[in-house]
């Protein structure tokens, strides 16, 4: 495999040489092989049930190609084939009205709104904590160890309780779910911002000192610009984490709406295709949210003259 | 304008805190502390203690006993007054009035002041510096617990919403067998098995990927993408495939821990310099010798980073997977059922166990890291 796909630089006659030396070619190959493995394992995993179905129907000696095609077209497969998932996603996004309870766009928008709210609160909280920690010795020494150990607590385990309890108080809707996202997303932002706000070299801080800059000015003109790349990196992690928080936050609400509810309903009724399509949509959502922050990062760094 | 003013006359945090303590104690001494009509003078111990607290707090500003003895007295008096507040409020649940909250605020500010003083103590021996560095976060944690206890009992928050730490402690002590069974099911079986398989297989995969540059270029972007995905969503699928018992939870843990470990190990294997690799070549070392003597040791900080991330991910994965179906034992099962029965103190006890297990797991890995990467600048200090 290495011989055919990794041509030596001398071998320029090979038309794939340029294609395979970058990242696009290898990534395509890896993705295609994942799809191939998926199809094969779908066929293998669905075989027992398919054979049972043939036996019940009294069919024997089914053609191999038809057999394979049937394993990829079951109603409730153990592992649905990729095209089944894609068809399901198409049916539940494009074919359904957005307001319909069965539309994945409807469910995604609910998850997305609590993700974004939680991310917003979490990021602001993280930045505030970081500013406090950088400027106060006591906060640094007393708070920092707890921020780190707060993440060893499996907060997702508390998620159902937070939601049930807040519902009991009368707070329902977006905020309880967003709180879990907040908890998950404040940590990377706080840690990254502390690192970033401390990243100016001593010589630069000294320069600000010779300008007789106040702490506020040093913060605004030196520390904050230095921390921006760190902020974007940690915001990417925080965004992914807050989506996870929003999805898990939807599990205990009794499966009303949202991607998490979709997962739970699918697992109750054995609708594997529904689970997989919710999963793929969630993955797509995470990918595009992270990519969005990546674009913002590029624009911001370019305007600040920091583009790499 | 305001910024220049701040730079000329720095806000002195200890002074603000000290006068805040005095103000709060004065408010507390002259107003009701409990409904219907109970002043602080009815509890002489508390009154005397708080008076001493105010004096000890403000002594630095007035200019006497500006040494560590004064600081220690402040700390001691703060602890005693916190204890008195906790014991008195347990007799007057839900009756707290303005004066009581003022006294609580005074105690809180005093403990902050004590920590503030503690942070600028100058010590000569590194041991005492370490003890102080451990004591500060510990004091912070304790004061949070005390504040939680005081506020919950003082304001009479219903037990269903938020039980007091003491109630959680009682529940923790009385239901040890159940908690232990849950811990065994979730942590000893699902988490440890999944963690070992996930990290081990990802490590082997990383070495294979590193051997083949094509795979490295192709698999790494995919791995990075997958690390950002909500992998926890595979939990229902795994429960469907592997049944209700712990193997399905272990499978979720394997999938969750695989990609962080893979990505970090591959990044770590690329961490050695060209110069160092050239040195190994001049020693005529082969691939495996270079791997074991140079590249794996250099990769250790990255690998341990992944192991630490995974230690928390593994616990989360196992607990959340239990929401989708489980035998009648396990931490996730207990949490979801006890929430349904409104036994919130049991849930908190389970959370305390989970937090303890997670912190210990993380701590053990951090200790191993210190032993293995003793050469790294972050460990040498």
From TrEMBL, chain A:
Coiled coil: none annotated. Pfam families: BPD_transp_1. Residues 104-297 form the ABC transmembrane type-1 domain. PROSITE patterns: ABC_TM1 (PS50928). It is found in: Cell membrane. InterPro entries: MetI-like, MetI-like_sf. CDD domains: TM_PBP2. The chain crosses the membrane at residues 16-40, 104-133, 153-175, 224-248, 273-296. Keywords: Cell membrane, Membrane, Transmembrane, Transmembrane helix, Transport. One of its GO terms (cellular component) is plasma membrane. It is a multi-pass membrane protein. GO terms for biological process: transmembrane transport. Gene3D superfamilies: MetI-like (1.10.3720.10). Signal peptide: none annotated. Belongs to the binding-protein-dependent transport system permease family. This is Putative aliphatic sulfonates transport permease protein SsuC. It comes from Roseibium album. The lineage of its organism: Bacteria, Pseudomonadati, Pseudomonadota, Alphaproteobacteria, Hyphomicrobiales.
From TrEMBL, chain B:
The chain crosses the membrane at residues 12-31, 43-62, 69-86, 98-119, 131-151, 187-209, 221-244, 250-271, 313-335, 347-368. GO terms for cellular component: plasma membrane. SUPFAM superfamilies: MetI-like. Keywords: Cell membrane, Membrane, Transmembrane, Transmembrane helix, Transport. Its main location: membrane. GO terms for biological process: transmembrane transport. It is a multi-pass membrane protein. It is found in: Cell membrane. Residues 203-372 form the ABC transmembrane type-1 domain. PANTHER family: ABC TRANSPORTER PERMEASE PROTEIN MJ0413-RELATED, ALKANE SULFONATE ABC TRANSPORTER-RELATED, MEMBRANE SUBUNIT. This is Putative aliphatic sulfonates transport permease protein SsuC. The gene is ssuC_6.
């Amino acid at each position: 495999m290495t011989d055919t796909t990794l041509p030596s630089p001398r071998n320029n006659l090979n038309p794939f040489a340029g294609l395979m030396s970058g990242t696009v070619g290898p990534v395509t190959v890896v993705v295609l092989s994942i799809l191939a493995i998926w199809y094969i394992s779908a066929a293998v995993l669905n075989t027992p049930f398919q054979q049972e179905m043939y036996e019940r129907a009294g069919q024997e000696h089914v053609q191999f190609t038809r057999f394979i095609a049937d394993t990829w077209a079951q109603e409730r497969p153990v592992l649905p084939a990729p095209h089944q998932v894609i068809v399901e996603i198409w049916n539940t996004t494009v074919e359904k009205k957005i307001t319909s309870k069965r539309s994945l766009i409807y469910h995604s928008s609910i998850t997305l709104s609590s993700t974004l709210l939680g991310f917003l609160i979490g990021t602001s909280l993280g930045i505030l904590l970081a500013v406090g920690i950088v400027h106060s010795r006591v906060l640094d020494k007393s708070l920092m160890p707890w921020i780190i150990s707060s993440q060893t607590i499996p907060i997702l385990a508390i998620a159902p309780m937070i939601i049930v309890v807040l519902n009991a108080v009368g707070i329902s809707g977006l905020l309880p779910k967003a709180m879990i996202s907040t908890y998950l997303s404040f940590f990377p932002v706080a840690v990254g911002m502390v690192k970033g706000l401390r990243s100016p070299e001593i010589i630069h801080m000294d320069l600000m000192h010779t300008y007789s800059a106040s702490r506020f000015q040093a913060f605004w003109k030196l520390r904050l610009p230095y921390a921006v790349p760190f902020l974007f990196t940690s915001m990417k992690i925080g965004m992914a984490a807050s989506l996870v928080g929003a999805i898990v936050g939807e599990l205990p609400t009794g499966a009303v709406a949202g991607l998490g509810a979709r997962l739970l309903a699918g697992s109750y009724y054995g609708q594997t295709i529904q689970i997989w399509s919710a999963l793929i949509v969630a993955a797509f959502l995470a990918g595009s949210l992270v990519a969005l922050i990546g674009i913002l990062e590029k624009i911001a760094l370019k305007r600040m003259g920091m583009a790499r | 304008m305001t910024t220049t003013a701040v730079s000329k006359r720095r806000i002195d945090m200890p002074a603000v805190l000290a006068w805040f303590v005095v103000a709060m104690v004065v408010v507390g001494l002259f107003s009701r502390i409990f409904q219907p009509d109970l002043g602080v003078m009815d509890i002489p111990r508390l009154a005397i203690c708080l008076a001493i607290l105010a004096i000890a707090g403000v002594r630095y500003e007035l200019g006497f006993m500006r040494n560590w003895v004064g600081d220690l007295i402040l700390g001691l008096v703060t602890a005693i007054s916190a204890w008195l507040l906790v014991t008195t409020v347990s007799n007057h649940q839900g009756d707290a009035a303005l004066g009581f909250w003022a006294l609580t605020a005074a105690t809180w500010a005093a403990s902050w002041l004590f920590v503030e003083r503690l942070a600028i103590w100058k010590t000569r021996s590194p041991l005492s510096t370490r003890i102080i560095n451990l004591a500060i976060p510990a004091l912070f944690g304790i004061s949070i617990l005390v504040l939680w206890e005081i506020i919950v009992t003082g304001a009479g928050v219903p037990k269903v919403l938020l039980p007091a730490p003491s109630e959680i402690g009682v529940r923790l002590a009385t239901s040890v067998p159940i908690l232990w069974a849950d811990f065994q099911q979730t942590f000893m079986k699902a988490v440890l098995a999944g963690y070992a398989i996930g990290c081990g297989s990802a490590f082997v995969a990383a070495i294979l990927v590193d051997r083949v540059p094509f795979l490295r270029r192709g698999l790494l972007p995919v791995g990075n993408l997958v690390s950002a995905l909500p992998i926890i969503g595979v939990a229902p699928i795994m429960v469907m495939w592997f049944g209700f018992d712990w193997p399905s939870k272990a499978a979720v843990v394997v999938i969750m821990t695989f990609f962080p470990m893979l990505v970090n190990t591959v990044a770590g294997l690329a961490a050695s310099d060209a110069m160092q690799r050239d040195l190994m070549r001049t020693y005529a070392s082969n691939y495996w010798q270079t791997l074991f003597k140079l590249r794996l040791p250099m990769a250790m900080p990255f690998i341990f980073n992944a192991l630490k991330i995974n230690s928390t991910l593994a616990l989360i994965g196992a607990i959340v997977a239990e929401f989708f179906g489980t035998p009648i034992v396990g931490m996730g099962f207990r949490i979801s059922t006890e929430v349904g029965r409104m036994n919130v103190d049991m849930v908190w006890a389970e959370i305390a166990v989970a937090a303890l297990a997670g912190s210990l797991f993380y701590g053990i890995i951090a200790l191993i890291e210190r032993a293995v990467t003793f050469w790294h600048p972050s460990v040498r200090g």
